[in-house]
Amino acid sequence: MPSTEIEQFAELLVQKIRDVAVASCDSAMRPNAKYPLAKRWKAAIDGGDQADLLREVIPDAVDRAVCQLLRAIDEGGLKLSFTATNGKTIDLTEEGLGELVGWYMGTWRAQYSKARFVDDFADLA
């Protein structure tokens, strides 16, 4: 049986990360949604090819979940530490300076990912 602390972590993980990411993806499906991701998803739906739709949605949904995790850390709602390979342990909220989501979306995906993603704001650079 998991400890009370593990159960508290599970509740936070499911409610603040998973559920919020699902709601965020659901919002892209609203008929009046006009932001870039929603437009891409609507275009993929209108294209009619289910495989194309899934290729579009899967990385976006994963990015939504990762962003919610990082946002929870940035805002201090999920207090996590990280131990680097050199043995140093850091507080992610403190060391992340409230910028983990921005760093992830702005540079980390492009720098570290080997899987596909769409940068809806690449033309703003």
Largest sheet: 2 strands, antiparallel
Rg, alpha carbons: 17 Å
- How would you describe the oligomerization state of the chains in this entry? single chain
Strand arrangement, major sheet:
1-2
Structural class: mainly alpha
Overall geometric form: globular
- As residue ranges, the low-confidence spans are none
Average of pLDDT = 94
Number of helices: 5
Note the beta-strand portion.
under 5%
Q: What is the number of domains? A: 1
Helix content: 55-70%
Question: How many β-strand stretches?
Answer: 2
Give the H and E element order.
HHHEEHH
> What distance lies between the first and last C-alpha atoms, to the nearest angstrom?
50 Å
SSE blueprint and pairings:
Blueprint: H1 4-28, H2 36-47, H3 50-74, E1 81-83, E2 89-91, H4 92-96, H5 100-112
Antiparallel strand pairs: 1-2
Helix pairs in contact: 1-3, 2-3, 3-5
Commentary on this structure:
By secondary structure, the chain is mainly alpha-helical. The protein has one domain. The chain is built from 5 helices and 2 strands, in the order αααββαα. It has helices spanning 4-28, 36-47, 50-74, 92-96, 100-112; strands at residues 81-83, 89-91. Strands 1-2 form a two-stranded antiparallel sheet. A hairpin with a 5-residue loop joins strand 1 and strand 2 (89-91). The mean pLDDT is 94.
